[in-house]
Sequence to fold (622 residues):
Amino acid sequence: MYIGIDLGGTNIAVGLVSEDGKIIRQASTPTLNEREAIEIVKDMAMLIEKLAKEEGIAVSDIKGVGIGSPGSIDFDNGIVVYTNNLKMDMFPIADELNKLTGLRVAVDNDANCAAMGEYVEYEDKVKDFIFVTLGTGVGGGVILDKKMLHGFNGAGGEVGHIVIEMNGEQCTCGRKGCWEAYASVTALIRDTKRAMEKNPTSLMHEFAKKEGAVTGRTSFDAAKAGDKAAQEVVNQYAIYVAEGITNLVNIFQPEMICIGGGISREGEYLVGPVREYVNKNDYNKHMKKTEIVSAKLFNDAGIIGAAMVAR
Amino acid sequence: MYIGIDLGGTNIAVGLVSEDGKIIRQASTPTLNEREAIEIVKDMAMLIEKLAKEEGIAVSDIKGVGIGSPGSIDFDNGIVVYTNNLKMDMFPIADELNKLTGLRVAVDNDANCAAMGEYVEYEDKVKDFIFVTLGTGVGGGVILDKKMLHGFNGAGGEVGHIVIEMNGEQCTCGRKGCWEAYASVTALIRDTKRAMEKNPTSLMHEFAKKEGAVTGRTSFDAAKAGDKAAQEVVNQYAIYVAEGITNLVNIFQPEMICIGGGISREGEYLVGPVREYVNKNDYNKHMKKTEIVSAKLFNDAGIIGAAMVAR
Fold:
């Protein structure tokens, strides 16, 4: 058994995970991100002990711990180099948790861990797998020959930060026109609001009112109810997603690309048009095509994937 | 010693190459691309025998043969799957040359071979290396952990076919706005011609007349002579190149990116501004930066790299 830890800005979620990537039991506690990093590590150790006790095993029976952390990670040395949300700059999180538990600890970026989590189901037959998460931003993890792509400095795999429109929409990274600025849910909400302004009678207004805000679902719900303006937003969003996926296919030609993040719960309603667009537009006209699927684990992917990083 | 073969639409260039990637001697013959594929292979075998004889060794002393071929290659099985210029669809070129020579034969895409060639100099200290060739198109090769990225179907590494401008300039691959449609020399010539139309007094007209045609050098030569319109073309071209390089850095974070193709003979005049732009705009603000260099081998890279593929 392994421990997978999904370290978020809000919660620390810890799971006891089987060899084949199933969560056996889990527990969580608030991150309280303003406090010192070492206090967060103490809570991790406490939750590991709690889970071991509940399972009736010794902590030393656990084969390893994986932590999925936001920010830039020095994977080789188990260090959080930089993160926006936590007081963890240059923090040797793996060593600190090892001191408290005696366990072997590995750390990776949270998006990479989610990629490892979604990959578990396919690992026996798929060697090259790209996970793309469409959320506040666009993140992801690139698994090549069963190993995570980190780049020489640990900062690789930032698939959301490919410019797909030069001088386009402002991206959080400083560049203009990154894929993230079109295919993130943040971008979808922006485009939904723009379409609502232009279409005061669109059903999107009603759906937004019902939910109390414009969300990533607003345009999808209204589109499904037959609203033309919403359908345009959704169609355009699928193209934005597909342009980036096509880029990834042309670069990597992986066996599989998995689309995750909350919006991927739309399933084939989003992934169907994306798949069609990619298959029509990718560079490969003579070889087998990349399979495009939607994610299945959602929130559990972080814990499971972190455990798999430890494995 | 190895044999490296650069199979082009015009010439078959064959070289005897040392273990450490130096061309010892070479020979070539016209491809005559309309003829049957097997005739081309016979000429390859003939040139191998000729080079061995000149060197005073037996063909069987050669450790292996590498072929760099245009088109889609089934690297694992040594098959040319598809190519525009040669009658080689689904042609088992490795087996055929093996039958004639008794030598072990490997085949890879010509751009991948050029990448391997340029990589030789750095292979002892660099594990992740991307070669980008700016020519008629934009091609390249991605070397990760010292191995060429092929994708699961052999069609990977098409770095020129990342859309950087949705609905932008038409690309030969069918998509609109690929990097190739902005950063290739073909694109540079198109943009030079457009600027010349708008600027009838530009020095570009004189340089083009001197060379007998608008080439990739026209805008660079005029820019160096102080021509404003030409400087704008060159500056914009450097940005186009840099946008794509930045995308590659954000995805791979490789230790080194090498820019090749004829236009890279401009050296720091092109690569300097590109490097500056990439360093300013890439996603990585906290880690070591990717080194950006220009190619050194040019025409020899294909032969040397093909030999290295065999090695």
Summary: The longest strand of chain A covers residues 23-30. Residues 82 and 89 of chain A are 5 Å apart (CA to CA). Chain A touches chain B at residues 72, 81-82, 127-128, 142, 144, 149-159, 161-166, 173-175, 243, 246-247, 250-255, 281, 283-290 (CB under 8 Å).
